[in-house]
Amino acid sequence: MTVLIDTLKQAPSEGVQRAAELSARYETMTAQEILRDAIRNEFFGDITLSSSFGADSAVLLHMISEIDPGLLVLFLDTDRHFFQTLQYRDELAKRLGLTNLVNLKADAEEAAAEDGKNTLWRTQPDQCCDLRKVRPLNREMEKWGAWISGRKRHQSATRAKLPIVEFDGRHYKVNPLATWNADDIAAYFLAHDLPPHPLVEQGFPSIGCFTCTKPVEQGADARSGRWAGMEKVECGIHNPIYGGDGI
Ligand code: SF4
């Protein structure tokens, strides 16, 4: 709790500087070393993991299970997930012994008021993601100072310069797999006998809601099947939300 209060008191520029220093220190460390330091030292008692239980998610979840299986794992349950994702979530959590998985949902009144016809994903996808992902996560993150994400630089042009630690004006975000590529992920799955998401073999290298995810051609940008045909490329949960001082 002391760490949280300290984080809240921190001026944005101090947060940006701390994130830059941590990024530089973490750049030469393995993903496991980064996670161990972030969970047990830098952000002790004040960090959570957000997982989509998508194509690559088992890697971070497995690492977490070896460091702290009781760490809070957040899943944004949009009510639009493939049933395979929900099954995979439950099977993986059980297999890895994760004891603190929480499903975050949209506020029921907000959902009824803004998307009574269930068409928002098509007409206003940014608002739909805001309703079902951004706001539920932000509400939960009011209690936390830092979170772990599985984003990687190789995934898309918009993530090519992803730092290992970011600061959004309020939260630190740790990206231990930022430098990993598809081969690193595949090797980790193999080395630890991790089950693949069942949709990967059907051509889904990145998996979101069923309404907004399509399979991709071999060799194409891994995230090109997300909101295919729209200008939208991110759901918004990674946008800085507490002012423009984020990195
Ligand atoms: S990915 Fe699509 S269905 Fe899911 S929350 Fe975003 S717009 Fe809505």
Automatic annotation (TrEMBL):
Top-level enzyme category: oxidoreductase
Main location: cytoplasm
Every Phosphoadenosine phosphosulphate reductase domain range: 47-215
Active site: C235
GO biological process, one term: sulfate assimilation, phosphoadenylyl sulfate reduction by phosphoadenylyl-sulfate reductase (thioredoxin)
Catalytic activity entry: [thioredoxin]-disulfide + sulfite + AMP + 2 H(+) = adenosine 5'-phosphosulfate + [thioredoxin]-dithiol
Keywords: Cytoplasm, Iron, Iron-sulfur, Metal-binding, Oxidoreductase
Entry GO CC: cytoplasm
E.C. number: 1.8.4.10
Cofactor remark from the record: Binds 1 [4Fe-4S] cluster per subunit.
Pfam families hit by this protein: PAPS_reduct
InterPro entries on file: PAPS/APS_Rdtase (IPR004511), PAPS_reduct_dom (IPR002500), Rossmann-like_a/b/a_fold (IPR014729)
SUPFAM superfamilies named among the record's database cross-references: Adenine nucleotide alpha hydrolases-like (SSF52402)
Positions annotated to bind [4Fe-4S] cluster: C128, C129, C209, C212
Names of the cofactor(s): [4Fe-4S] cluster
Family annotation (PANTHER family): PHOSPHOADENOSINE PHOSPHOSULFATE REDUCTASE
Protein task: Catalyzes the formation of sulfite from adenosine 5'-phosphosulfate (APS) using thioredoxin as an electron donor.
Similarity-based family: Belongs to the PAPS reductase family. CysH subfamily.
Name of the protein described by the UniProt record: Adenosine 5'-phosphosulfate reductase
Organism from which the protein derives: Asticcacaulis biprosthecium C19
